[in-house]
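Crash report, auto-generated. Payload:
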Amino acid sequence: MALLERPAVDRRPSPVAPRERRWRPSRVPNRRGVRSLLVALLMACATLVTLDAQGGDASPLEPARRAVGEAFGPIEIATATALRPFTTVPEWFRSQDALRGDLERLEADNAVLREQVATSGFDRNRLAEYDGLTAAAERAGYALVPSRVVAIGPAQTFSRSVTIDAGSRAGVAPDMTVVNNDGLVGRVLRVTRTTATVLLILDGDSVVGGRIGSSLEAGFLRGRGVLGNDGRLDLELVDDTIVPAQDDAVVTWGSEDGAPYVAGIPIGRVTQVFTSLRETATRAVIDPYVDFSALDLVGVVVPSGTRSDRAVIEADGSIR
Amino acid sequence: MTALRVLAGAALVVVALILQVSLFPHVAWQGIVPNLCLLVVVGAALTRGPQFAMTLGFTAGVLLDLAPPADHVAGRWALALVLVGYVAGRVRQDVRPSAVGVVSTVAASSFLGTSVFALSGLLLGDLDVGVPGLLEVIGVAIVWDVLLTPFVLPLVMRTFDRLEPATATA
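Recovered output after restart:
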């Protein structure tokens, strides 16, 4: 007993200490408490990381992701809608209202024409292969759900994903293709009732099957995960004897049933070509047609006749 | 009062998160935005000490990991922000920090938070950016966070101070 009491007497605080304590009592936390809380929270983080990293696609955290998405989706949509007048302010300085209307119309026309030019070689080749009819029938089977980008993932997360304001209520489901009027944007990763998360083709995890429009050579496009507005894709051709020409257009190759990517969507043009003797494949750098720094209105490719909570643009251009 | 403080902390975190994904990308430089959630955690640490800041950091981190459009292994921002809450909470717990103190704490916390997030990605193989790109992001993020400090930190610190003024008069 005496042994226990003595240190207590020795540790009596100096006369200055109690005054400081009284000055700001809550500022002097219990060290042991802090440390045990730190350890507890670090363990919790480690558990989360392990659960999510091991689970992969069937991660036990997917329901939690969905629940948080259901809660945050409407708030993000409301915020983006409320802020839209302000976020478009920079545009007012560039041009006057009337001019802007004209500009947008011309840009849309231009994009359509450019898409036609970009895919004409591809389409011609396909016709030559008697593929055109089936392809046309296939493409006619798709419709677009229009939606807007409401949240953009920060570059600090080192992944490129955005949230759009169309979810399962609008007929959107995971693994659907997302396009805008310039070309391929990405694919849907997961949906909530009101929102969907889209993985941009620039992301390092994104792999898209692509074809060179002029030669129909197939390859795989990988995002570089490069940050910033000058995003680029790497194209690796399966046949290493083919060297794509500069400015060749690259379009999607398409997967079975159009998931995750439907066929024939323009992706970008070839800017540089690398061939290394060591590697078996030729690598080309692709500049995407889509301006990812100004991503706003996008369309999700859905099967024709999908029930949606909004007007759906059918393949023949009619709005339903 | 504690319940009110927790509610206020959660509300600040939610507002910070929404602004971070919906407003700031429009003014972002190369896609890098100020990390408002981190600023809220640092503010909590400077006024309320490490325990509250770590808990708030964990909450904010989990939300950052799960709320759309996040698509990385969950728990990485939580880890980063818990450490930020701990380190920022160790800074001068007895007196109110000066302006310079606040700014340097924010800079150090921003460096720590973004680096921990990036390194955890490297370890998990969840990162596909080279080291130069990584350093660029960390550097720009520090600049952003320091620039936003005069606007965000006083607000956050005043909120937490006002919710428990008893400590100042005791």
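Post-recovery validation: Chain B is about 75% helix and 0% strand.
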